[in-house]
Structures are given as structure tokens and as C-alpha cells.
Amino acid sequence: LAGYEQQDAHEFLVVLLDALALHVDKRSRRRSGTILDEDGRLDPKSLLEQRRNFVHEVFCGSLRSELVCQACGATSSTREPFLDLSLALTSSSDSDDDKLALEDCLARFTSPETLPELAFCQVCGQQVKRTKQLTIEKLPNVLIV
What we know:
- By secondary structure, this protein is of the alpha+beta class.
- 23% of the residues lie in helices and 22% in strands.
- The chain contains 3 helices and 6 strands, in the order ααββαββββ.
- It has a 4-stranded antiparallel beta sheet with strand order 2-1-6-3, with no helix packed on it. Strands 4-5 form a two-stranded antiparallel sheet.
- The longest helix has 20 residues.
- The protein is globular, with a radius of gyration of 19 Å.
């Protein structure tokens, strides 16, 4: 953890999991070509290509991101590994009596959203708005939210 900056529990857990994964990998074998991010932590995008260890087996899942052209309906899809999900903790109403349910937070996380910027569609050849939707493709054994 960096210097005297305040760290919350989520940041601590992410740093701990990264450190555990790197430690286990270093002890099990010397890896060549390990992809690290700018902070020296294991890049989550490299998790799918590398040999998995117990941290990844327990905590790693994958998200599917789909972009849909609003003009022609063409879809592009990408897959991205994750060790945790950051969900917005906002209630659908302003009442203090409403309980915040995990299911509602997950529904908002996976609901389609229209992206504000225009993008070039390779299929219809136009500058178009797109819709993005995340879905959980593979749940980890232990889901951290």
C-alpha cells in the first residue's frame, strides 16, 4: 500500500489478491513475459492467457461486453476477466425505508446503456450511437462485490 494515503477495505483486498497471485506464481515457477500494469500488479487482462493459480481459480470470473449498433444491429463482443465487481450502491427511490438489494445492483450493472459518443460502424459504414451491455459470462467460485 502506498505511503500514508488512506486505503479502504476494497483497495486492500485487491492489493492482497494481486500480491498473493504474484507470490504463488513466483514460488511455483519463474514466469517469462508476465504482463504487469503500471503499478507493478498483475494485469487482469493477462489472467486468461496465463497459468491459473489458486487465487485465480477461486476469485476470477469473466464479463462479456457487447456493443450493438443502433442503426443496423451489428454486435461486437469482448471478454474480460475480473477478480471483483464494483457495483453502484444507489437506491431506485429516495425513500429511507427502501432496502438496497444485491439483485437490484446486479440488474443495474448488467442493464444496457446507450453510449453518448458516436462511433463508426464497420458493418453499415455510418457514425452511429451504440448500446453497451455487460453480462457475467463465468461466475467465480467466490464473487467479491
